[in-house]
Amino acid sequence: MRHTEEKWREIGSLDMDDLPIMLPPPAMRKIVRVVSGSGITITEALFNNFEPKTDRPDGGIFGARACGENFRILLDLHPPYVDPVSSLSGGYFACFLAYRQPAWNPDLDFSHLHEAQNLYKLHHGIGAVQHFCQDMTIGFALGLGGLLERVRHYRTRNTDDEAQELYDGLEHCLLGIQNWIARHARAAREMAAVEQDPAVRRNLLTMAEINDKLVAGVPETFREACQWTLWYQLAAKMYNMSGSLGRIDQFLYPFYERDRRQGILTDEEAVFHLCCYFLMDTSYTQLGGPDAGGNDLTNPLSYLVLEAAHQLKIPVNVGVCVGKTTDPGLLRRGVEIMFEDRTGIPKFLGVDRTSEGFARNGYPIGLGRERAYSGCHWCAIPGREYTVNDCVKINLPVVFDVALHDMMADPTVTPGTGALRASFEKHLRRAVETIA
Questions:
Q1: Are strands 41-47 and 29-35 parallel, antiparallel or unpaired?
Q2: Which pLDDT tens digit goes with each residue over 326-351?
Q3: Percent of the chain at pLDDT above 90?
Q4: pTM strictly above 0.85
Q5: Beta strands in 281-393 (DSSP E)
Q6: How far is CA 176 from the centre of its chain?
Q7: What's the Rg (C-alpha) of the chain?
Q8: What's the burial of 164, exposed, middle or buried (CB within 10 Å: 0-12/13-18/19+)?
Q9: Where are the domains of the chain?
Q10: How far apart are CA 271 and CA 315, in angstroms?
Q11: N or C of the chain: less Cβ packing under 10 Å?
């Protein structure tokens, strides 16, 4: 609440996603207006001591190497945040996008599209970022150390300049994140050294041990998997305001099931770890729903994620799947929580219709079922589909209005529904081609 009240005082109300970003320390802060990852103008608090490294006269940061190097600089000056009574470390104070001005490389000109873009008031998506869903299981399997090894391995196989620039940028990001995590481990250990409460001291030392491990290693317990997920999501949010989480009840379930079987995790502890997670990351996530074969994947963790959202009573972007084969118990519990909490959470996802709609594009319906709720009103196949869904919009009423006025202004056309339809189709085709 203290951080939220401070944001209200310093930057005012926010007509955007409810993000758990915190303000930089007062001595390191400045307030600016910037364009977000979804293309809307927002008020942002920036670090006043970040100096972008660029050789461009306009100060732009473009290309994988420049973005990776500058993001690493931002990570290196980012102060650690450790809540001693949370089970997870980390928080973020800034978004890299706010420092990338101009946001679009002016060398890549698209002025030939401006007339149609303005005529139809198109949201063209040029320059849009994130809006895809990552595959968290890759990170769990490799860890940051394994990802770094892969980058260094493949840079020896793909030696062209473009590939080397990409690998340079990726390595900068990974090294920056590793250093960021290591500094949190040190901070937790330093806090433990002066902590008087034995339980809090043990918790701080456990957080330090977990994060020392996750600098390069892979998560093995439910708590470690929650912490690894949080590091990834915080870094992604800092980089470009990413908001996708995907099917949390699926990718965390193996850790939950293993810990429960070994007797080292209770459901109460699992809910607490999830609450600590959602306090720092409210990304969009899906509960339940089918696998590629149409079999429902609801499991005990699905209910615990719902319970965590219920206990927090904040805008956690949890969506419950609804369909012919989905678990009616999860739906019922979701409805109960919505009426009891009155927060608009959870949301409900009509997975049968969206899967069928995806299949109408010529894809197997199994791929449609694999798509995960990942954003405001969009889904994506984790790790395989870069949708940019809600960044591209055609306003059909505007196209209709243009078509109507065009028909009425043409002296060679007799106004009527047939002529109007032809005019609408012509202008809609132009709008679509402009977007494409």
A1: antiparallel
A2: 999 999 999 999 999 999 999 999 99
A3: 81
A4: yes
A5: 284-287, 318-322, 347-350, 372-375, 378-380
A6: 19
A7: 24
A8: middle
A9: 243-393, 396-435
A10: 16
A11: N
